[in-house]
């Protein structure tokens, strides 16, 4: 039977556990999560175990990255199942602070990221989001002091924002992206997939199919604009309200008009019913 990981809920207990983990100069990896863990999260844990002697997973539903109309109150919370899965993966420590620990009374400092955080993708529709992400991730990095941190590529713009922040602020953490993990029909795994009705779940893989079709047309020499427009039509026909489908430089997130403009990433965000899904692939 796997050992249950150490669970720290206060800064004092985290620092004690972190000190024990770091003995004999063992390197440490952090996998930040908001819980409701699925195989995508566990794939990051497995990557972390290949890179580091000790693995820490944080579970914290961060209120500062949710707008008033978003799903903070209903965001799925599956603590017992999460701990069981992390124990099976051999995680050493779970950092599970409460809101008052992360944002004590009088907390008055925020990080305002620029660069990839202002690329006109998620920031157009969730202008509050990356400030909340950058602030909480910076706190997690300074609290845990990991050598490596692992983030999924599904939240591709977030990965670029966090990577840039860690580099710009000299946080001493190497940020590593993990490949998207998909269901058999191509739907990118997400904690929010549980919100989908049976009909919506059937339609949801349209996003991935549209991205693949767009990439195929572009690689065959098709016009970027017409390829993206065809994808937008297919997504709308499946019942989605499209926020964006874009071709961007995979490192800077700047708009591109040709595959010759550098490594290209295709990114999409759309809502079906009340559930907003995002996805991306290499072009």
Write the layout of secondary structure elements.
Layout: E1 6-8, H1 11-21, E2 28-33, H2 39-51, E3 54-59, H3 79-88, E4 93-95, H4 99-102, H5 122-125, H6 129-144, E5 148-152, H7 156-168, E6 174-178, H8 198-203, H9 206-219, H10 224-237, E7 241-249, E8 264-272, E9 275-282
Parallel strand pairs: 1-4, 2-3, 2-5, 3-4, 5-6
Antiparallel strand pairs: 7-8, 8-9
Helix pairs in contact: 6-7, 9-10
Number of E-type strands: 9
- Regions with little confidence, pLDDT below 50 for 5+ residues: none
- Under the CATH scheme, the architecture of the largest domain is 3-Layer(aba) Sandwich
Helix coverage percent: 25-40%
| Strand content bin | 15-25%
- Global Rg: 19 Å
Main sheet characteristics: 6 strands, parallel
Q: What is the overall silhouette?
A: globular
**Quick one: CATH class of the largest domain?**
Alpha Beta
CATH H-tier superfamily of the largest domain: HUPs
Strand order of the largest sheet: 1-4-3-2-5-6
CATH topology-level name of the largest domain: Rossmann fold
Distance between the termini: 43 Å
Round the mean pLDDT to the nearest integer and report it.
96
Please provide the ordered H/E string of secondary-structure elements: EHEHEHEHHHEHEHHHEEE
Please give the count of helices: 10
Query: What is the domain tally?
Result: 2
Content-based structural category: alpha/beta
